[in-house]
Amino acid sequence: MTPPPATDATGCPARRREFITTPELSQFALSCAAALLLAITSGPALFYVAARTFAAGRTEGVASSFGNGLGALVHVARDRFGVSAVVSSNTKPFTVLELMGSAYLNWIGVRTFQAAWREDVGVSSRGSMASWPRR
């Protein structure tokens, strides 16, 4: 004999509560393997680290690599706490995030052009023109 289904106060069948459980070891290992595969494939982060290493040496390359790893951890933590779901479900936070990212990238671009201009013109950090005009 099976017991009758549980009912709530209204007489409707009670819903089972689903709890988040930890993944099985095989699922966890597969997820780690996929993350490792994505981490070692070439992409913008790898090219950035290589460029920084060639331009400024091993110390700068290692620092860039750690920075990329920290950025990935921030993205994972953000996803874990549901920020991505909130942003994707509402257009206002997404638009604000887009505009902030756009402003940041523009600021980086302007600073890069300013640094290149200073190097090209020969402006020192004190503002004097050391070797201008170059011939």
From TrEMBL:
> Pfam families per the record?
LysE
**Where in or outside the cell?**
Cell membrane
Record membrane topology: Multi-pass membrane protein
| Keyword Ribosomal protein set for record | no
Q: What sections of the protein cross the membrane?
A: 28-50
Q: What is its main location?
A: membrane
Q: State the InterPro entries in the record.
A: LeuE-type
This chain belongs to the protein called LysE family transporter
Q: Keywords for this entry?
A: Cell membrane, Membrane, Transmembrane, Transmembrane helix
In which domain of life is the source organism classified?
A: Bacteria
